[in-house]
Write a structure and sequence with these properties.
Shape: globular
Keywords: Methyltransferase, Transferase
Protein name: Methyltransferase domain-containing protein
CATH architecture: 3-Layer(aba) Sandwich
Largest sheet: 7 strands, mixed
Number of helices: 5
Helix content: 25-40%
GO biological process, one term: methylation
Distance between the termini: 58 Å
Order of helices and strands: HEEEEHEHHHEE
GO molecular function: methyltransferase activity
Strand content: 15-25%
CATH superfamily: Vaccinia Virus protein VP39
Strand order of the largest sheet: 3-2-1-4-5-7-6
Number of strands: 7
């Protein structure tokens, strides 16, 4: 027999599922008004961008493992920061393939993610990195390395050759590493929200 508490949990779950379905349907229509996409936005909202996340905290609800709900050749700019390390490589390949299909021929995809080469170099050189802004204070190099690979829900951390290889698989032909907060394109400047720890940041074009 279902208890009142179990019934309440079931009702709440069904209600949340229903709200999620409605918000996903709304996302399909609302994307028509944007040509700049912020993927995996979490709670951070970039004004003038479509901020897409599975929970929709920032703006719009969408599961980024699925094709983006907009037509081809629609997006001028796509940005994602500290998101792809949280999903398997195969899901990232699907995401960037979907992104490529909606990106204009002269569009730009900008990705910011932790750099595996930097993490490994710090370990080998005995440089213990701590991040007060994230309340991260590993006590040893071993803890630092393990946290960098597994903490915060990290699944797959990239170095530059691996990320470039992935992007070429997805149809991007012009890939350039860029510096934190800098870009030849004014709308892509100053987007990074985390302190500069020599992250791997690239801009890719079809």
């Amino acid at each position: 027999m279902t208890s009142p508490k179990q019934l309440a949990v079931r009702i709440l779950w069904n209600l949340n599922q229903g709200v999620g379905r409605v918000r996903r349907l709304l996302t399909r229509g609302r994307l028509d008004h944007y040509d700049r996409l912020h993927l995996g936005s979490g709670s951070r909202r970039l004004e003038g961008w479509a901020n897409l996340d599975i929970d929709g905290y920032g703006h719009l609800v969408w599961d980024l493992r699925k094709p983006l709900p907009m037509g081809t050749d629609r997006a001028r700019l796509i940005y994602t920061e500290h998101f792809i390390e949280h999903i398997p490589r195969d899901d990232a390949r699907k995401l960037f393939t979907h992104a490529r299909s909606v990106l204009k021929s002269d569009g730009i995809l900008r990705i910011s993610t932790p750099d595996l080469a930097k993490i490994a170099r710090d370990y080998v050189e005995g440089k213990l990195v701590q991040m007060p802004h994230g309340n991260w204070f590993p006590a040893t190099l071993c803890q630092m390395m393990n946290d960098a690979m597994r903490r915060w829900g990290h699944v797959f951390v990239y170095d530059q050759p691996e990320l470039e290889s992935l992007l070429r698989e997805c149809g991007y032909t012009r890939i350039e590493r860029v510096r934190w907060g800098e870009s030849d394109h004014p709308e892509l400047r100053g987007l990074e929200s985390r302190p500069d720890f020599d992250d791997l940041i690239v801009e890719a074009r079809p």
